[in-house]
Amino acid sequence: MPEMRQSSLVVVANRLPIDDNQAPDGACEWRRSPGGLVSALHPLLRHTPATWVGWAGGTGTAPALPDVDGVRMHTVALSHDDLRDHYEGFANATLWPLYHDSVEQPQHHRRWWEAYQRVNQRFAEATSEVAEQGAVVWVQDYHLHLVPGQLRALRPDLRIGFFLHVPFPPPELFMQLPRRAELLRGMLGADLVGFQRAQAAHNFAQLVTKVLELPATDRRIGIDDRVVRIGAFPVSIDTAEMAALASRPDVAARARRLRQDLGDPRQVILSVDRMDYTKGIEQRLKAYSELLAGGDVKVRDTVLVQVAMPSRERVGQYQILRERIEREVGRINGEFGRVGEPAIHYLTRPFDRAELAALYRVADVMAVTPLRDGMNLVAKEYVAARVDDDGALLLSEFAGTAAELSQAYLVNPHDLEGLKQGLRAALRASPADVTERMRAMRAHLHRHDIRAWARSYLSALDETGTLVSRLTST
Ligand code: ADQ
C-alpha cells in the first residue's frame, strides 16, 4: 500500500470542494466547485501542504481523486444507509430544522443517531490518517459535531478548530435533543469553536453550563485541563471576485438582455434561494400576491424573478415544500399573469456565476427574507455585484447578514403586513436613499471579505501564527 501523504493543514467538511463534470467527450472529470469556502481557503491551501477530507457524492467505495489546484482530496465513503440516516436523517431532518427555530418539526430516530456517530467517527479516522504531527485541523458544520472530540481522542497533538455555518439555537430548543450532552462534548473537543454571530456563542456557553456544568463565559470554557475558546466569525464572500465578474462587459450585456427578455419592466424584484423551508419563500410569495391583489404592484410594471434551486430532494419535508411553492406560483401566475407576461418568473436550475452576477445587476430590489439563516451569502453577493451603487436590498432581520448590513431595508418575514410594507418601501425608495445605503454596505463588504474571515478565524486558532503569516504573505 502506498504511504499516506500527510499535511500540516486539514479541512474537514461533509462535501469535498469538487463536482464531477461530464466532459464533451462523455468522460468524467473532477473540477473545483465554486463554493465560498474553497475560495476563502484556496490562497492558504495553495501555499501549505493541505488536505481536504470529505465525501465526494455517491455511495459505495470512495473514488481516489487527483489533487485539485494543489490541494489533496481525501475521500470518505458513505453507504446508502449512511446517506439516509446521517445526511438526510440526523443532519438534515433533526439538527437542521431544530437549529432554524423548528420552523419544521425536527424528527428523532435512534437509528439516525447511531449513523451520525458512526459517520463522524469515520471522518475523524480519515482526518487522523492525513494530519501530520501538530497539524491544524478545521472541521466544518453541523454534519460533523462529534469529530473534534473523536479526533482529540485519536490525536491529542492536533490543533483543532470547529466552525458552525448555521445558527446555534437557544437552550429552550437545543435542550429537546435526546443526545444534547454528547453533541456539546463533541464540539468541545476543539480548541476554538466559531459561530456566525455572538448570540450563538452566548447560547453555546449557556448550554455548556446548564447541561455539562462546566465553567463558561461567552469567550472561554474550561474542560478537563484545557480551555476552549469560542467566538463569532461572520463568514463572507469573495467580494472582489464578484465585483470583477459583475463589471465584465459581457455580464453587463447579459443583464441588459435579461431585462429585455423580462419585457422591460419598470422594476425587477429578484430572489435567489436554495429551495428550503427556512428561506421564507412561501411567506414572500404570499406578500407579493397580496400586493398584486391590492393593486400596489402591477404586472406590466414589475416582475418577480424567483430562483429556487432544489436541494435535499429525498427529504420528505423538502418534497412537500416544493409542491406547495409550485402550486402557489401557478396560482399567482394564473390569477395575475397575462399572455406573455407572467407575474413570477420561476426558475429551478443552477446558474453559473456570470449568469448569477447578471441577474443581480438586473434586480432593482433583491428580496432576501429567510425565517432564520446562519448568514446568507446571496445578500452579500448582491451587494458585491452592485458596482453601480444602485439596487435596494430587502433583508430579513433573522439572517446573520442583518447584523452586518444594517443599511438594508430590514423586515420581519413572519409579519405579512411588515413584509408587504418593506417590499413597497424598497420599490418606492428614492435613488439617493438607495445609493447611500448601497455605498455603506459595499464599503463594509470590501473590508470584511472571505479572506478576512479565514484570516481572523485561523489566527485565533493557530496561536503560533505560522499559518496566518503564510496566508497574509500571498
Ligand atoms: P445556504 O443555506 O446554502 O448556506 P447561502 O448562504 O445563501 O445559503 O448560500 C447559497 C449559495 O448558493 C450562494 O452562494 C448562491 O449564490 C448559491 N446559489 C443559490 N441558488 C443558486 C443557483 N440556482 N445557481 C447557482 N448558485 C446558486 C449555509 C447556511 C447559510 C450560510 C452559508 C455559508 O445556511 O446561512 O450563509 O452556509 O456559511
TrEMBL record:
Q: Which InterPro entries match?
A: Glyco_trans_20
The organism sits in which domain of life? Bacteria
Per the record, the coiled-coil ranges are none
Question: What PANTHER family does the annotation carry?
Answer: BCDNA.GH08860, TREHALOSE-6-PHOSPHATE SYNTHASE
Q: Which family does it belong to?
A: Belongs to the glycosyltransferase 20 family.
Q: Could you tell me what this protein is called?
A: Trehalose-6-phosphate synthase
What is the species listed in this Swiss-Prot or TrEMBL entry? Micromonospora parastrephiae
